[in-house]
């Protein structure tokens, strides 16, 4: 099992020592993270290693999931979309489904047994309504809140204000609510199957298994099948780029258990599949790793993106990324230095052509990308931010709540 000491080669002994010292302050505190899915999507991707690492440094940390019927996840996905600027037909039926389901979950979850409760994203947000708060509650929102549907936000804001802190991924996601707001950028686990070093033989084995040809350079996007990730735009950009340079496009996506829209979007893309446009719907972390390592270019052409873990994952592997110039992605890619930011299909196509034509540029950007992730986006940094926050409550919370 990976421990914090394993991060030393990447972040240095000083940071590890500091984290271990700080964690001592929380030795008697039980922490729980709550979200809505065990796999698929960036939140689960972070909570798995983060909760283990917190235990490793001596903080008793649990990870619990809320359960819901398809109706519940259909409503929460609509809320997710509307928080990112989409439309929602906000009916009483929807709020009833949402609130009733969380009430049932609250009855089964003994959240009063913990000393800190961290709630992730909107799905479990209203759980707090069913507890007499005996400790600090934190709402960690991973999505882009810069232009939410106003009616939906007005419904959520009073509940957000019951929390003791709110964490977002970027300054522009802060809202005007009476809650201290902090910025934590997500981070990756360099030791996971998805991110660890792979031998060429391991990479080849995965690509062969899925019959992915390697005779031409690979252009890859790895994302849940979701319109915000703009798979249609990726295919269009690839087709344009192919008029100038030959390559193979691979779109890999998994389906998160809390995202009911995925299968439909995948089906709708299938008619675009051809020899050089390969669509794969699979949950296979080693394949994600192999593709990110063997791609000449990784795309993350999102239209909205709280923070794209896939961007950071590919950059860690020294692969240049072309990302949508939206949400958290400009915080991850320095345009023209360690990747490219794009705002249209044409720009994406142009950048694909440039990167495919110039191997030196790919190599240089890839090296800078890896360096940037090593400095800013490894899980040890996120762990330290959580420890600082969870510890900071001690005095202020008890003063306020008697
Ligand atoms: N992912 C995966 N397989 C896939 C597609 C995505 O394992 O086929 C992972 C991806 O590697 C990343 C996470 O799911 O770790 C997606 O996180 P991101 O922040 O990019 O997007 P989200 O899905 O949270 O919107």
Question: What do these coordinates show?
Answer:
This protein is an alpha/beta fold. It has 2 domains: 4-187 and 378-401, Rossmann fold, CATH 3.40.50.2000; 200-376, Glycogen Phosphorylase B (Rossmann fold, 3-Layer(aba) Sandwich), CATH 3.40.50.2000. 44% of the residues lie in helices and 14% in strands. The chain is built from 15 helices and 12 strands. The strands form 2 sheets. A 6-stranded parallel sheet has the order 2-1-3-4-5-6, covered by helices on one side. Strands 9-8-7-10-11-12 form a 6-stranded parallel sheet, with helices on both faces. Helix 12 (329-332) links the parallel strand 11 and strand 12. Helix 4 crosses helix 5. The two termini are 40 Å apart. The mean pLDDT is 96. Uridine-5'-diphosphate binds at residues 41-42, 45, 194, 222-224, 252-254, 285, 288, 307-310, 313.
Number of DSSP strand runs? 12
Estimate the global geometry from the Cα principal axes.
globular
Q: What is the mean predicted local confidence, pLDDT? A: 96
Fraction in helix: 40-55%
- Count of individual helical segments: 15
Ligand set: uridine-5'-diphosphate
């Amino acid at each position: 099992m990976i421990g914090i000491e394993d991060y030393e080669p990447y972040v240095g002994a000083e940071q590890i020592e500091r984290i271990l010292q700080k964690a001592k302050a929380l030795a008697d505190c039980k922490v729980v993270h709550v979200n809505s899915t065990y796999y698929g999507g960036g939140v689960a991707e972070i909570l798995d290693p983060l909760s283990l690492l917190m235990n490793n440094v001596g903080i008793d940390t649990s990870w619990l999931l809320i359960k819901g019927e398809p109706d519940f996840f259909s409503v929460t996905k609509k809320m997710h979309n509307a928080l990112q600027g989409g439309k929602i037909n906000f009916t009483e039926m929807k709020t009833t489904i949402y609130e009733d389901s969380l009430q049932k979950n609250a009855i089964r979850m003994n959240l009063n047994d913990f000393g800190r409760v961290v709630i992730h994203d909107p799905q479990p947000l209203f759980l707090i309504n069913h507890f007499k708060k005996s400790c600090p509650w934190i709402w960690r929102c991973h999505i882009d809140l810069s232009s939410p549907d106003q009616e939906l936000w007005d419904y959520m804001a009073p509940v957000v204000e019951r929390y003791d802190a709110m964490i977002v991924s970027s300054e522009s996601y802060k809202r005007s609510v009476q809650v201290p707001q902090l910025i934590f950028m997500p981070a990756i686990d360099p030791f996971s199957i998805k991110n660890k070093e792979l031998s060429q033989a391991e990479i080849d084995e995965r690509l062969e298994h899925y019959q992915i040809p390697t005779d031409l350079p690979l252009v890859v996007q790895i994302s849940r099948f979701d319109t915000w990730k703009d798979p249609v735009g990726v295919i269009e950009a690839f087709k344009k780029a192919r008029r100038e340079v030959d390559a193979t496009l691979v779109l890999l996506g998994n389906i998160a258990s809390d995202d009911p829209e995925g299968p439909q979007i995948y089906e709708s893309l299938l008619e675009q599949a051809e020899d050089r446009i390969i669509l794969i719907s699979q949950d296979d972390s080693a394949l994600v790793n192999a593709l990110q390592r063997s791609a000449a270019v990784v795309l993350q052409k999102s239209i909205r993106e709280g923070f794209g873990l896939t961007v950071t994952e590919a950059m860690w592997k020294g692969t240049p990324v072309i990302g949508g110039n939206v949400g958290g992605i400009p915080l991850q890619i320095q345009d023209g230095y360690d990747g490219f930011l794009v705002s249209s299909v044409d720009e994406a196509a142009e950048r694909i052509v440039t990167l495919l034509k110039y191997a030196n540029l790919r190599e240089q950007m890839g090296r800078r990308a890896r360096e940037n992730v090593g400095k800013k986006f490894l899980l040890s940094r996120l762990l330290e931010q959580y420890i600082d926050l969870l510890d900071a409550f001690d005095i202020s919370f008890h003063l306020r709540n008697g």
